[in-house]
Specification:
The complex is a heterodimer of chains A (429) and B (644). By secondary structure, chain A is α/β, with parallel strands linked by helices. Chain A is 21% helix and 27% strand. In chain A, the strands form eight sheets. Chain A has a five-stranded parallel β-sheet, with helices on one face. Chain A has a five-stranded parallel β-sheet with strand order 16-23-17-18-19. Chain A has a four-stranded mixed β-sheet with strand order 1-13-8-7, with no helix packed on it. In chain B, helix 1 runs parallel beside helix 5 and helix 2 crosses helix 3. The longest helix of chain B has 20 residues. Classes of the chains: A alpha/beta (429), B alpha/beta (644).
């Protein structure tokens, strides 16, 4: 007999949009369940450094919001869990199965002391540092994770038992199994966010082959307060780079890789990183290779202008090919559109400003048909007047699950979703 | 005096600890009398640290805490909640800013940054020692909202607020609802027309029992503050009986008779209209209006129809609301005469005029008697100005003009579009429209930032010249039948509302939010919220999102029946006060009035109005005003510690 629970709203995804929508709803008295597939809530935003155009520290904005979510009496959070078989039985009546995967660590007992990490002999790539450094098979996901408790990566675990012996609070439990919970809710919010474009799909940029070609997310991690090296270093030899290139539209506005649309955030995050790098590496030259700079939001164009005034070099041109030369340096072949000639330039670090794509598999969580738009984002059925509405009545979308969006837009979209849901739920009250 | 104080020094990841030696700061704090414990922490705001602080308060029975971290603007409430959770009065907590005022400001001098952080922390400890337990002030709140502006954003917010149970007063300055959206025909993304969207919303609003719509109405006075605003509305007469059944024939006759002709602002001045008017047939409210400012009261129309009553007078209504939600929208930028030939060359119009022209031209596209075959669109007029004030990008125009260019090409035969742009910004999914326009053969040319496109009259022709980036600096020129200036957004003239409500204005002259991520629809004036394009250029979907978000915030602010206000406010020592009136003159919030006390006149503070800004304190010659939460005693001891 599986357990059964009831809530007013199921929020799928515990990133900034999911958190914002949940807090709004919970403050109005609705019971909310957040299901997060990752080990921690916080989504992508919790991993960012300072955010444009105000250069606020991202963790400083995210952590309190996350902590408010975690503490709210009307909010329950299941991390490391997945939702399936969402079925609309009738209006205001959805049923779903939430599967809670085992962490092999008792959440309530773990103190996050990380002694287990010291003892664990297995080292693998740290996905939260975007593979820049390693982590252990038993690990606290990252320093500001919520919940800040360990989990065992069972795929990579050698079952040596060292963690079990070392744990002072006897929190390690290899006998945990996944648990299915049946939930009944009145409404659903899809706040599943986005995924980053995989630059391996553009072989001519050399990502994966040349170590000094990195993604913007890897640069972002080098700029955050919890950065792995405490300096900006290039991966191949640990040298501090002094001639950095940004390649915009890597995986966006490109029919050849199946993503014809603009990702809406890459121009601005690159302009931001360039400004942060000028602080971190005062002597470095930074060049941004762009097609069009899309600094369209409030304060964005001024922010772009500020980067130009600080000395960031902007070149209008598409990168044709990147090759490695001496000492891991890189040669960029590009069309300088303004001069109308093909040129080459040498850089010692190349950052690919990777775009954002729709997460897959969202519609298959639903038994009813949840329609997608041509770019695989959740389709907004009444975009102009009810932007959070989807093709299933009672199911709403918040944040980047409906399309590329920056943080301010995601937060507004989550605000809109919570308002629309509150309206829908009150129809019943 | 507090004597069991907990002090926490935040590293802020490394934002602070890179420049400030947090251990030294902690050690210095520990030496102060009354400090019970001092700790350093990676992120004071992280959930686990908040838990730790709460546990310390409970287990060690702390009577006050100091957290040295970032600006209180960011986390004052975060840590106050930690105190509350642990059973400590939140006003026995002081936040010291060693990031913005410490590490970030003095990143070039680490020892001095540390020294300054120590002084600041000592000051904070000195202040918290004298801190008093204070309670929030609770005031009644009216579960009613005034939504200003009945465009798409305002109507959508009004509807949602009403659905959530608030009483809504929807106030529109014009005679008809719909705002800008009703002026646009087919909208991008859904291909619904603006008028369809407006009709859909209007029909829901007008049947909703909780919404009252006021057209031709302005706010003329405001009293009170959050939870309890009293607004006086002044409504211009429509001169037509609201109960009248619209007879289109009679209406047309009245239009024909009316001798007054004015510029038709609905069509951005490319046509004229009469004083009696309706902008389009299905416009709402259904009843036409007679323009109060234009009508000469000749009475010709009244002879045709009994429902016309030119004796109607403006009338005033008083409403009581808990919050005000502004959705006053935007104006298109009005180019000065001569900018790209505007007002000088006869076939130069703005994008907004062009959109109206298309709607008014069913078969052929004709402007000033000439059929249009090729069109030059000049981008970023009034936006991204190099010399002018408008440094911002107007966000919607690239997509809007490209969408219009596609429509024009589909609607009329043989149109050729030329886009003189400064880098196309069709962000997100709108990119597909740019693609579509290119596919259909539109020509895109891009000017250099220091060499803008030029428009000039040469003989009978209008010549558009550009040095084009996209064809390797080629100097190109074309003879255009029509030049469309892609004019961006500027805020509406809102001087009256700004003066009444004291809404903060940003550098870009749009209304300003408190924080784009944390509090994107609230302003520093409690109870005044903003949404849509009065805040920044936004398209319709984006405006609606912000309107809904604002509705949600407004509702949770006022729907509980009472609002909690900060107890940090001015207080008068009645015996010392001699009423000279200086404090009242200095108060920016009209919070100080005069009252009788023991046979003399003294100052009185209105709690709901006082923001605790402290402006009244230094002007008082008798030192008869103190600021609760920042008393002279607290401040003096803080200063002493700072300079010791």
């Amino acid at each position: 007999m599986i357990k059964s629970e009831e809530y007013d709203v199921l929020v799928i995804g515990g990133g900034i949009s999911g958190a914002e929508a949940s807090i709004n709803l919970a403050n109005q008295g609705f019971k909310v369940l957040i299901v997060e597939k990752d080990l921690s809530v916080g989504g992508k935003m919790i991993h960012l450094s300072k955010v444009f155009p105000t250069l606020d520290c991202s963790a400083c904005i995210t952590t309190p919001k996350i902590s408010q979510t975690a503490r709210h009496p009307n909010i329950t959070i299941y991390t490391y869990s997945q939702v399936n078989d969402i079925e609309k039985k009738s209006e205001h009546n959805f049923q779903a199965i939430v599967t809670r995967y085992p962490r092999y660590v008792k959440e309530e007992d773990c103190t996050g002391c990380q002694i287990c990490e010291e003892k664990c002999p297995v080292v693998v790539n740290d996905q939260y540092q975007y593979d820049l450094v390693g982590r252990k098979a038993v690990y606290v996901p990252f320093s500001i994770a919520n919940p800040r408790v360990a989990a065992i990566d069972i795929e990579n675990c050698s079952f040596c038992g060292a963690c079990e012996k070392a744990c002072p609070s006897e929190a390690i439990d290899f006998s945990q199994e996944k648990i299915d919970i049946q939930i009944n809710v009145k409404s659903v919010v899809i706040a599943t966010g986005f995924r980053l474009f995989d630059p391996l799909l553009i072989p001519r940029y050399g990502f994966g082959k040349y170590k000094n070609v990195i993604t913007a997310m890897q640069m972002e991690r080098q700029l955050v307060p919890t950065r792995p090296f405490n300096h900006v270093l290039r991966p191949k030899d640990g040298k501090m780079p002094d001639k950095i290139a940004y390649v915009l539209c890597a995986g966006s506005r490109d029919e050849t890789i199946g993503n014809p649309i603009c990702s809406q955030v890459c121009c601005m995050y690159s302009v931001k990183q360039a400004q942060l790098l000028m602080g971190a590496l005062p002597l470095a030259d930074i060049t941004i290779y762009y097609l069009n700079i899309r600094s369209f939001g409030k304060g964005f164009n001024e922010f772009y202008q500020q980067a130009k005034d600080m000395g960031v070099n902007f070149i209008k041109g598409k990168i044709g090919k990147i090759t490695e030369t001496d000492n891991g340096n890189l040669l960029l072949r590009y069309e300088d559109i303004i001069e109308g000639v093909v040129k080459e330039a040498k850089h010692d670090l190349v950052v690919l400003s990777v775009g954002i794509l729709a997460n897959q598999g969202i519609s298959s969580m639903f038994k009813d048909t949840l329609e997608l738009d041509p770019f695989n984002y959740i389709k907004q059925s009444d975009e102009l007047a009810n932007p959070a509405k989807t093709t299933i009545r009672g199911v709403y979308v918040a944040g980047t699950a409906s399309g590329p969006m920056d943080i301010p837009d995601s937060i507004l979209s989550a605000g809109a979703a919570s308002a629309e849901i509150a309206g829908y739920l009150r129809l019943r009250r | 005096m507090k004597n069991k104080i907990g002090v926490y020094i935040c590293q802020c990841g490394s934002n602070i600890s890179d420049y400030v030696d947090v251990v030294k700061v902690k050690d210095a704090a520990l030496k102060v009398n009354g400090v019970h414990l001092a700790k350093t922490t990676m992120f004071a705001c992280a959930d686990s640290t908040q838990q730790e602080i709460a546990n310390d308060i409970k287990e060690q029975k702390l009577d006050a805490i100091v957290i040295a971290s970032c600006s209180p603007k960011l986390h004052l409430f975060t840590f106050r909640n930690v105190a509350i959770q642990a059973g400590l009065n939140p006003y026995n907590y002081v936040q010291v800013n060693i990031r913005e005022q410490g590490s970030w400001a003095h990143s070039d001098n680490k020892p001095k940054a540390t020294e300054k952080a120590i002084q600041l922390v000592l000051g904070g400890i000195a202040r918290v020692k004298h801190s008093k337990e204070l309670d929030m002030i609770k005031i009644h709140s009216e579960n009613a909202v005034a939504v200003v502006g009945a465009g798409v954003a305002g109507m959508r917010a009004a509807l949602e607020l009403a659905e959530m149970g608030s009483v809504v007063h929807l106030i529109e300055r014009e005679y008809f609802v719909g705002g800008r959206a009703s002026q646009w025909n087919v909208l991008f993304t859904t291909n619904e027309t603006g008028q369809q969207v407006v009709s859909r919303l209007y029909n829901q609003i007008i049947t909703h029992p909780k919404v009252t719509l006021y057209t031709a109405t302005n706010i003329v006075s405001k009293k009170g503050s959050v939870g309890d605003f009293t607004l006086t509305l002044k409504t211009k007469p429509r001169y037509i009986n609201p109960e009248c059944k619209l007879d289109l024939k009679k209406f047309q006759l009245a239009i024909d008779k009316c001798p007054i002709e004015v510029n038709d602002e609905f069509n951005f001045g490319i046509t004229k209209r009469k004083a009696i008017f309706k902008n389009y047939d299905s416009e709402f409210p259904e009843i036409p209006a007679i323009d109060y400012d234009a009508c000469n009261k000749c009475g010709e129309c009244a002879k045709l129809c009994d429902d016309i009553d030119l004796n109607q007078q403006p009338h005033e209504t008083t409403i009581n609301v808990g919050a005000v939600l502004l959705s006053t929208g935007f104006n298109p930028y009005e180019p000065p005469v001569g900018e790209f030939g505007y007002g000088e060359v006869d076939n130069v119009i703005t994008l907004q005029q062009f959109k109206r022209l298309i709607e008014l031209s069913p078969e052929k596209l004709i402007y000033k008697g000439k059929e249009i075959k090729n069109i030059a669109y000049i981008y970023c007029v009034g936006s991204r100005q190099v010399d002018g004030d408008n440094k911002y990008c107007s966000r919607y125009c690239c997509t809007s003009v490209i969408h219009t260019a596609i429509l024009v090409k589909n609607k009329y035969k043989g149109i050729q579009n030329f886009h003189f742009n400064r880098g196309i910004r069709t962000y997100g999914k709108q990119e597909k429209l740019y693609h579509e326009a290119s596919e259909q053969g539109d020509i895109f040319l891009q000017s250099f930032e220091d060499a803008p496109t030029q428009v000039e009259k040469v003989g009978n022709e209008t010549i558009v010249k550009i040095k084009d980036i996209l064809t390797a600096n080629e100097e190109l020129e074309m003879s255009a039948n029509l030049v469309v200036l892609v004019t961006g957004m500027v805020p509406r003239e809102n001087a009256d509302i700004v003066n009444l409500l004291k809404v903060p204005i940003g550098r870009d002259k749009f209304f300003n939010e408190i924080h784009p991520k944390l509090r994107p629809v609230e302003t520093v004036i409690d109870g005044v919220l903003i949404s849509g394009a009065c805040q920044a250029p936004l398209n319709i979907t984006e405006s609606v999102k912000s309107a809904l978000a604002a509705a949600s915030k407004a509702n949770s602010l006022i729907s509980k029946g009472e609002i909690e206000l900060e107890p940090t406010m001015a207080m008068v020592y009645n015996d010392k006060c001699t009423w000279c009136g200086k404090c009242s003159a200095a108060c920016p919030y009209d919070a100080i009035s005069i009252k009788e006390y023991n046979g003399k006149q003294i100052a009185q503070i209105t709690e709901a109005l006082c923001k605790g800004c402290g402006m009244c304190l230094p002007v008082c010659p008798e030192n008869a005003i103190d600021l609760i939460g920042y008393t002279d005693k607290e401040m003096e001891s803080m200063i002493e510690a700072l300079i010791s």
